[in-house]
Amino acid sequence: MNYDALSRPATDPVTIFEHFRGNYATELLTAAIVEFQLFDKLRTPKNSDQLRQEVGLKPRPFVVLTTALRAMGLLQLDTRGDLSLTPLSQEHLLPGGNFFVGDYVGLAAQSPGVRAMIERLKTNRPAGGEDKKDGAAFIFREGVESAMEDEQKARHLTLALAGRAKNVAPHLAAKLDLTHGETLLDIGGGTGIYSIACLQKYPRLKAIIYDRPEVLKVPREMGQSYGVAERMEFVSGDMFADSLPLNANVILLSNILHDWDVPECRRLIANCVKALPPNGQLVVHDVFLNDALDGPLAVALYSAALFTMTEGRAYSVQEYTQWMTESGLRVKPKIDTLIHAGFLTGLKSL
């Protein structure tokens, strides 16, 4: 019996993910108060560059921190575009105020999670990123040890990530129009479940799963279990260093770009566009921050999770659209899937 990748969950698991990521709110808020004295530094409004220099952070951690604080309703942009305190933070998070609660929040300052978050913010490196031997488990980068190069660890991580993907894949397949799709190149495809759902919906479609060699052992098995193995191809490589397969007219980047910083995102998108034929399409399936980088809170906290485990963060529709447009794509409006995710489709001109 073959499994069905198009069946949808009867209930929406989004609240489970929101509760799971809630600890990042504690860690970011405590770090802002105790380590960076951010609210005290904003007794008078400041532009982002000035505040970032005062707290001593690089752009990526600064965006992660301030996006979360804005989503919590503690920071805002004033009429001049400067960051300023909200009435809530002004009353309760300025030292010396009658209703100050910063010392209460500061009771968590020595907890392992808060100390680890402060270290991540200061160094702008994911967990394990300081030690090339330990490596960054959630990503592959040449010269750094990764779980993706160890068979047992790669299998465990790939299957763990599939827990969310199996919920979301039927929604992506239902809303992504692949009527004219011939071959789908799934970059960093993991279990291949997103491609498998699309293969089950579109019987003429073929798919190429592109990932690290140890990871690819999993989608080979999945393809058999879901009855689509004969339409699947498996290609190993480094998506930054190696040439991408050129025989696909659809490329899928599902939950890939959020693992990388802005230069790498731009480079990977450009590489994808180069590999596409005229009229080909690039699909970016991910979570999205508001264009103003002020929420939603659940995505801002997921961005903090990504920040601590990878070299990336969550990005906005505006950011993705800019990178796709500058690479020569015409971008369609975002379409939502499930668990805060959605996708953008960029069409390559003739």
TrEMBL record:
The coiled-coil regions, if any, are none
One Gene Ontology BP term is: methylation
> What are the O-methyltransferase C-terminal domain coordinates in residue numbering?
147-329
Xref: SUPFAM superfamilies: S-adenosyl-L-methionine-dependent methyltransferases
Q: Which domain of life is it from?
A: Bacteria
Query: What are the record keywords, sorted?
Result: Methyltransferase, S-adenosyl-L-methionine, Transferase
UniProt-listed Pfam families: Methyltransf_2
InterPro entries given for it?
COMT-like, COMT_C, SAM-dependent_MTases_sf, WH-like_DNA-bd_sf
Q: Name one GO molecular function term.
A: O-methyltransferase activity
Tell me what this protein is called. Methyltransferase domain-containing protein
**Species name:** Telmatocola sphagniphila
